């Protein structure tokens, strides 16, 4: 019976090592103009983007890092009080390059678009419109579309050698790919066409349409939205009508820019099941959109210098130290059974007791006799001497057992991470991977970002390419 080709392919994938991502080669290439970091939340995208930007700058390039993450981590790690919609120079970098950073201000970017594509009077009317203010502050997809706008603006200036984009921290981190389509659907929708029709018709025909056609819609929408909101929407649409085409044109141009040579997508993940499942989603989605994926950054990978001691052997040794009667210790069980001082032995001498305040001698186990009196009678009971060699040995054994258990937990974690990583690389052998070791603390300054950059470069140098 011939083997199943699908199973054979799957087996081959498991045996093939992952390709290695050469980060320095990517950053040093003058043809690389945009690097987009994407991935689920909490995997270190912002830190990775900042570290890549810093490393590229210190290797001679003029870089701007654009973050869409509202958290303050990027500003703090770069020594900047705050980030806004304008690139800010980062001080303290080495080398001949420059590093700048900025954080997307969604509403301010929308305002800039309106001001750039409408005359002063119309722009003022749009900016003051209540519906526009709500739309620019929180309409679904506005953040992603404005990220596209800002990226297009930065690239059009030709001021930067490299733009590093940190995408939103969510499952929908690739929503900015859908933003042009969503915006087009919104602008071309029936409601918008109906609202823009009066302005396009103009004059009496427009007023007649507004009085007759709009009255039917107002009857329904007015109850749901309120008459004032509907009026605000009509005013906004009329004022924005001439700029709608520009929105679509620029969004489509930026989308094509993301597909073009010179753009590189990096998926960022952690060696955990959920994070790598999300990474697989991003990889497949980027392939569907024909976006240039260059590799996976696997953050917070754990390691150990003592990995030759397996978790099983460490746990067995810990159990032996905690309960020496499980297996032979020293001379073995026979020696323990033949000892006259064996705990619980039938040969233990019977205790002698007296009353009237006279101490009672009890069995000894190598310790000292303690006395407790009840009603004037002392009962002899032996306990190990505090600070005795036996007590010290027991403390050392307990400490050693605890360390062995910690080591076993680390080995189990390493094994789990490796299995999860292997599943991803078996499913996507075409994706180059670079590992970044887990750090003992958070990154909060340029030195920490520089260390991350060094680890990214060392990940490629430390692992040989598969032949």
Automatic annotation (TrEMBL):
<dbReference type="Pfam" id="PF02374">
    <property type="entry name" value="ArsA_ATPase"/>
</dbReference>
<feature type="compositionally biased region" description="Low complexity">
    <location>
        <begin position="348"/>
        <end position="389"/>
    </location>
</feature>
<feature type="region of interest" description="Disordered">
    <location>
        <begin position="322"/>
        <end position="393"/>
    </location>
</feature>
<dbReference type="InterPro" id="IPR016300">
    <property type="entry name" value="ATPase_ArsA/GET3"/>
</dbReference>
<protein>
    <submittedName>
        <fullName>Anion-transporting ATPase</fullName>
    </submittedName>
</protein>
<dbReference type="InterPro" id="IPR027417">
    <property type="entry name" value="P-loop_NTPase"/>
</dbReference>
<dbReference type="GO" id="GO:0016887">
    <property type="term" value="F:ATP hydrolysis activity"/>
</dbReference>
<feature type="domain" description="ArsA/GET3 Anion-transporting ATPase-like">
    <location>
        <begin position="32"/>
        <end position="306"/>
    </location>
</feature>
<feature type="compositionally biased region" description="Basic and acidic residues">
    <location>
        <begin position="322"/>
        <end position="331"/>
    </location>
</feature>
<dbReference type="InterPro" id="IPR025723">
    <property type="entry name" value="ArsA/GET3_ATPase-like"/>
</dbReference>
<dbReference type="GO" id="GO:0005524">
    <property type="term" value="F:ATP binding"/>
</dbReference>
